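To assess whether ligand presence alters the predicted conformation, the chain was also submitted together with magnesium ion. Input:
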Amino acid sequence: MPANLPPAYFEAEKRYREAKTPAEGIAALEEMLAIMPKHKGTDKLKADLRRRISKLKTKQQQRKKLGKRERGYIVEREGVGQVILMGTPNVGKSALVGALTNADPPVADFPHSTWKPTPGMMYFENVQIQLVDTPPISREHREPWLLDVARRADLILVVVDVQTDPMLQLEETVSFLKDNKIAPLGMEHTGELTDRWIFVPFLIVANKSDDQSAEENFQIFKSLVEDNWSLIPVSAKTGRNFDLLKQTLFASLEIIRVYTKVPGKEPDLGAPFVLKRGSKVEDLASKIHKDFTEKLKYAKVWGENVYDGQMVQRDHVLEDGDIVELHV
Ligand SMILES: Nc1nc2c(ncn2[C@@H]2O[C@H](COP(=O)(O)OP(=O)(O)OP(=O)(O)O)[C@@H](O)[C@H]2O)c(=O)[nH]1
Ligand SMILES: [Mg+2]
């Protein structure tokens, strides 16, 4: 980290990274620009910040142009990953999103109570994952936007009701998706699929697994489902297995959290950098600033697979939880 940037700069940068709207992003970037010490060495960084501001301003304009009708069908990505809940009517998709996130979608004991996508943010430790509630799948009136939302998702959470024929519900949802060329990741090699398919990781949750009698249903369901599917019994009513579900979702997103520190100081463990699994020290550097990628000399890493403060090169692969000191 350049020693000449004051802590307030990194606080503003954190706000920039966590900004939920272009307006918030612009405000944070303007602040970073104002804090930046004025000398020749910071010219490039300043130009980069100005570029980011103008990009966000364009985005803000485009947003305003979108009509109200259209806006309802676009689910803007927030947090570290986007998970879409899909399933047949009445299985508890809205109840799960309501119980796991800050959103409050309508839950009803009649089918088809949800008619538009409703996103909510779910905390997992120090990051947030976006869950999106959707209307039930239906062959009668197909909503094209629902498939678009599914294609763009990082993961599809197929919800079934363990108390009422979960196998039939699973087959219905999966075949609906496959009819629209969306298949579970890992099925690319089965031969039956050709071009223009989209592969998305799938996870199945057997909702309404409230008690012991539901557990028996779950065991029967499990024995019927093919081995390569991942299933978790959960209950939106009692919160059963919510921790396991959160951990599994996070693991399926294939991301890692790393923390940066300046020499002699403690890292800010509340503000991770989120990178794809397999990322290297140089990927972290480029995420902080593109100049860092060139100037990076070495790094020191604290974490599970290294000894404390181990000196590593730019191609060192980082792990979830690593603390990194970049030396430029
Ligand atoms: N016992 C039990 N009931 C549940 C659970 N989750 C949801 N329900 C009930 O199931 C019914 C349907 O729940 P919703 O969340 O509206 O289902 P949905 O899948 O969103 O329904 P649509 O939007 O119509 O597709 C409601 O009566 C809920 O109270 C659960 O874990 N256990
Ligand atoms: Mg619903």
